[in-house]
Every structure is written in structure tokens, then in C-alpha cells.
Amino acid sequence: MAGVVGRLARRWCSGALSSPLQVTRFPTLQLHLCGPAMTASQKDFENAMNQVKLLKKDPGNEVKLNLYALYKQATEGPCNVPKPGVLDFINKAKWDAWNALGSLPKDNARQNYVDLVSSLSASSESPSQVTPAADRKQPGGDALVVTSQDGITTITLNRPDKKNALTTQMYHDIMLALEAASKDDSAITVLTGNGDYYCSGNDLTNFTDVPPGAVEEKARSGAVLLRDFVDCFIDFPKPLVAVVNGPAVGISVTILGLFDIVYATDRATFHTPFSHLGQSPEGCSSYTFPKIMGSSKATEMLVFGKKLTAREACTQGLVTEVFPDSTFQKEVWVRLKAYSKLPPNAMRISKQVIRNREKEKLHAINAEESSILQERWLSDECMNAIVNFLSRKAKL
Ligand SMILES: CCCC/C=C/CC(=O)SCCNC(=O)CCNC(=O)[C@H](O)C(C)(C)COP(=O)(O)OP(=O)(O)OC[C@H]1O[C@@H](n2cnc3c(N)ncnc32)[C@H](O)[C@@H]1OP(=O)(O)O
């Protein structure tokens, strides 16, 4: 319950309760803060909304109401909705706060919002000093956190208590984050995980709660989602780096073949137990893995589910470099910050020269793999594997 309240409180601050799209757009977090004499731009405003999500300390109800009111004033102008009833405590408090701003111009409200967030960030912890480290837990647990600094946009999987398993919502949010990152002014994009795991693959509960008779439709929509998701990685135009902070399973491993660089801690393992799960390879791994490591090594992984250590994965060419866990974050981020200072257009064009001639083929392979998996998800082998996991009879 406390978690739910916390999430709602954070949504208040960005006004997301009244405009749900705000939560899923993931505009990137630029960390230049405006002085009071300047007028905040729309980008500063969006960045401030993101910074609110990263605050370590709960700023308290009064500040949250203030943020809510400034957000509404900045986006909609003076309060324009009927006053809620006296027993509707929360909405009435929000209405009162917004109404109290009277006719404050939108620009001023936007600036005040940015200033307030800036002061909260300074008194909490400046996100500009925050490295998205493996052991950093975001307050309240937004499942995906996107930050942008030093020319690097970082997409962090943030469900450490579920080993960063990917929910349906997370697939959608990652696609939106990639779309935004492809257009922002960062040079490099990073995918990483928070906690001891990089990612435990598809959340197996994605396949549950399906009403009788809707299983086929669920498999069909799952295949569409999978195909769209993998397409985003195939088409991503900038250097894409995986910072593999711990064990990786399933789809989080297979899509590594579509990344440009894979840095791994020596604690990481790489596991694609598709046969165990009654499933088949995805993420274009049926093509990229044999190409990267040769067909018999790829078969060991994709057909027999052999789990590779980080060093084995590096020897096979799936991982670019392995770092000791104790210095992993430091070494990797120093390296990436140096790379991010290289001319971004040159890097983008070089990536495209390397990757473009494969794109059409990869899209076709992705379509084929997704359609085969659609059938697999309906098989007894797959359903039994999921039931076994959920009833704790089986673990990888
Ligand atoms: C629509 C696109 C579809 C794309 C298809 C992709 C295919 C794949 O990705 S296949 C791979 C699927 N993943 C798995 O089969 C992993 C299942 N998880 C495990 O075997 C184990 O949890 C683990 C080996 C990853 C970790 O074991 P450990 O003992 O360290 O921790 P646990 O106590 O098991 O896990 C903690 C917590 O996290 C939940 N959890 C972990 N992984 C998943 C998952 N993939 N889906 C759902 N939930 C997961 C686990 O249930 C625990 O939750 P509780 O604390 O609530 O019990």
C-alpha cells in the first residue's frame, strides 16, 4: 500500500494523474538547471518532471501539492475545473493549491516549477552526480528510469526485486525511451539494470491472467509486441551499449547481438533456456548468435540452454569486455564518458555503415522468429514450464 501511495504521490508532482501520457513519454533528463532570471524552456520543464521521479527523499505533501499546482498552471493556465466536494479530500487539496495560484502566467509557473525541483534536487542529491550504478534503488520503484548526462542517455531496468523481469508495460516504455534517445542530443545510449541482476528476461506472469478463449489473442499480441520491440533495436541509429551489471536471461541476452558494445561484470552470466521453457530463440539470435560465435556454440546456448560465464561470453564474441565486479561501474562509465565526447554524427554514420546492410535481413528474421514463438506460446511444453515456474517447482 505504501508503495502505491508513493507512486501516486510522484504522479501528483508531474500532474500525471490528470494526464497519464506524461508518465510514459520518458523525455530525457538533461541536467542543466536554470537560474531564476531565465525563463524555463519546455525542455527544462520536462527535465524537471523527470528529476522529481529521481528525488531520494519524499518532499512532503505540501511541496507535492505545490508542484502539482505549478504543473497544472504551467500546462493548463488558471484553475478551470469545478471545485471537488468537501469529502473528496485529495482532489480538493489539489484544487485548492491550483486555484491559489490565481492568474499566474504559464511561463512564470513553469519557471517556478523548475526552480522548486532544482532546490529539491540540491537538498536531496543532485542527479547530475548520480551514476546509474547497479546498487542504486530508485525510490518507489518506477520500472524504467531514463537519465541523460555527459552525452549518454541511460535506460535503467528498475525492478530489482523481480530481477528486472520485463513486463508488457516495460517493453512499451523501452520502445518509447529508445525512440526519444534516437532523437535527443546524446551521443551514446546505454541499457543497464538496477540491482544484482541485469535482467531475468520476459516476465513469466505476462502469460497469466489470460481469460479463457483469449489465449490465441494473447499469443498474437505478444508476437506483435516482440516484433515491434526487437525492430526498435535493429533500427536504433546511435551506438547502443549494454552495461551488463549481473546475470542476464532470455530476451535480455538474445538482443545483445543487436548492440554495438556489451560490457559485463565478471559476475554476469548469459542464459537462454528456451528449450527448458518450451520456447524458441528470438531477438534475431537465430541469426546473430551463429554469426558471432559459430553455429555449434550458438546451438549449445540456444538449443541446449548452456549458461555462459561472462568470460566465456567474451571469448565467444558476445561480450566486448569483462570487468572485475568491484570496479565495473567506475571503469565502464569512465570509458563511456570518453567515447561520448567523440563527434556524434561521425559515430552515428559509422554505426550505420557497419549495420545498415544487415537491416532488411534482420527485420525478416525477427518477423519469422516472432511468428514461430507465437505458436510455441500455445504449446503444452511452454504452458507447463510457466506453470512450473509460477508454482515454484522449477527455476533456471
Ligand atoms: C512479449 C515478448 C516476449 C519475449 C520472450 C522472451 C523469452 C524469455 O525471456 S525466456 C526467459 C524467461 N525468464 C525466466 O525463465 C527466468 C525465470 N526466473 C528464474 O528462473 C529465477 O527467478 C532466477 C534464476 C532469474 C533468479 O533466481 P533467484 O533464486 O535468485 O531469485 P527468485 O527468488 O527466483 O526471484 C526473485 C523474484 O523475482 C521473480 N522473478 C524472477 N524472474 C522472473 C521472471 N522472468 N518473470 C517473473 N518473475 C520473475 C521471482 O518470481 C521472485 O518473485 P517473488 O519474490 O515475488 O517470489
TrEMBL record:
It is found in: Mitochondrion; Peroxisome matrix. Its EC number is 5.3.3.8. InterPro entries: Acyl-CoA-binding_prot_CS (IPR022408), Acyl-CoA-binding_protein (IPR000582), Acyl-CoA-binding_sf (IPR035984), ClpP/crotonase-like_dom_sf (IPR029045), ECH/Chromodomain_protein (IPR051053), Enoyl-CoA_hydra/iso (IPR001753), Enoyl-CoA_hydra_C (IPR014748), FERM/acyl-CoA-bd_prot_sf (IPR014352). PROSITE patterns: ACB_1, ACB_2. It catalyses: (3E)-tetradecenoyl-CoA = (2E)-tetradecenoyl-CoA; (3E)-octenoyl-CoA = (2E)-octenoyl-CoA; a (3Z)-enoyl-CoA = a 4-saturated (2E)-enoyl-CoA; (3Z)-octenoyl-CoA = (2E)-octenoyl-CoA. Gene3D superfamilies: 1.20.80.10, 2-enoyl-CoA Hydratase, Chain A, domain 1, Lyase 2-enoyl-coa Hydratase, Chain A, domain 2. Keywords: Acetylation, Isomerase, Mitochondrion, Peroxisome, Phosphoprotein, Transit peptide. One of its GO terms (cellular component) is mitochondrion. One of its GO terms (molecular function) is fatty-acyl-CoA binding. Residues 41-126 form the ACB domain. It comes from the Eukaryota. Transmembrane segments: none annotated. It holds the Pfam family ECH_1. Pathway: Lipid metabolism; fatty acid beta-oxidation. The keyword Transmembrane does not apply. The keyword Acetylation applies. Residues 121-142 are annotated as: Disordered. PANTHER family: ENOYL-COA DELTA ISOMERASE 2, PTHR43684. Able to isomerize both 3-cis and 3-trans double bonds into the 2-trans form in a range of enoyl-CoA species. Has a preference for 3-trans substrates. In the C-terminal section; belongs to the enoyl-CoA hydratase/isomerase family. This is Enoyl-CoA delta isomerase 2.
